[in-house]
Amino acid sequence: MNEKNSKDSSFSGQLGFVLAAAASAVGVGNLWRFPYFAAKDGGGIFLLTYLILLVTFGYALLSSDLAIGRKTQLSSIKAYGAMKPGWKFLGILTFFVPAIIMTYYAVIGGWITKYAVTFLTGAGAAAAQDNYFVGFITNPVESGIYAAIFMLATAFVVYRGVERGIEASSRIIMPVLLVTVILISLYVLTLEVHDADGTVRTGLQGLAIYFLPNFEGMTLSKYIQIVLDAMSQMFYSLSVAMGIMITYGSYVKKEVNLNQSVSQIAIVDTAVAVLAGMMIIPAIFAFSGMEGMAAGPKLMFVSLPKVFNSLGIVGIIIGAAFFLMAIFAALTSCISVLEAIVANCMEIFHAERKKVTLVVSTFYTVVTVIIALGYSLFYVEVGLPNGSTGQLLDIMDYISTACMMPIIAFLSAILIGWLVKPEWIIGEMEADGSTMPRKGLYRVVIRYVAPVIMVILALQAFGVIN
Q1: What does R_g of the chain's alpha carbons equal in angstroms?
Q2: Do the domain assignments include residue 466?
Q3: Domain ranges, residue 363
Q4: From which residue to which does the signal peptide run (predicted)?
Q5: 3-state secondary structure of 239
Q6: CA–CA separation, 133 and 117 (whole Å)
Q7: Does the CA dihedral 140-145-150-155 come out positive or negative?
Q8: Tens digits of per-residue pLDDT, 163-177?
Q9: What is the CATH number of the domain that holds 275?
Q10: Is 109 inside a domain boundary?
Q11: CA-CA distance, 316 to 309, in Å (whole number)?
């Protein structure tokens, strides 16, 4: 028996695995990044582009990661070396993605927790003030405490293991999250706002902007940027090219139908992202019009609290429900990032889960607080190669998601497409007796299309192209 699985449990079955993997995929990327990219990139155009990429690139990358994990029964740092001698370096490179993401993910989770507490205590009006968010993240004591609490909650679940910790929490969190996001989405569509000049804006009008593509003024360069944004979001949302799904795949039993699992994970993840857009974009449009749609990353922490506050007591209740749901989503993703690190360290040091989790979590609690203080005591402002500027959190995000993920996906595509050949993955996808759909599409994407697109994404990240 594989060393890791001999001392650590696996997922109980397909449902447990799908819920855990979907919970990993559903996170801040769905509730925060997806809506603001959709708002920035023309609503329906971004949505259509994202869906096309999902059934092509997303399908290929997610299938590859899960198949690699189950076939090798190893986490990412050793899995690539088991696939092809001399390629262990790719596993090491992949390991650094969650290792870097873990430095700041709990910081964002702390922000969300702060807003949940604010709305639950009836102080939603305070959260709607222009300087509330900046005031919080620049407060070293408060921001550091919330980040540490979120990190410790993540560590507790990982400490309990795969089935009793990760799977058990996902079985509770995912249904609650899905029901909450559906109810809020339906309510938002009933909104109707009357301006002083007689203008009426409704949630349904915002929904039309979100779903219907508008190609007016569209140029090739603008659409290329939309494609790149959608691709970046897909990496972040599906947890691919960072070793997480390889780790989760290593916990999957051979009788589980991976083909069905890939489809189910993608459907749940995309449904939450689309519903998050249905919650946020119609609400922002109803209260702020097209100007509010340009809020960018501040959409969730600045614009949305203003909307909730404008709805009175109903808005306070909806705001509390929304940020509680966001805590669930952020927590499940943070758990998967920490699990990828812990699983790799267990293999490297031949140590048991609880000891590794304690050591790793202690280290990351300290680092998380340092990153949280990057807006106050450790404030820096650094120019990045892609033309943006950022603080400590932004720098870590840029290195891990903008730079490393495209490079890892490129190298993985070369390894699978040209060295071990696509049949290596296809064979594992069909190990339970099922047939892998879209095999021809998989071969084309992994061999020819993915390497080209990954190079373009990497060049954009390094500022070579705009």
Answers
A1: 21
A2: no
A3: 3-461
A4: none
A5: coil
A6: 14
A7: positive
A8: 677 777 778 877 888
A9: 1.20.1740
A10: yes
A11: 6
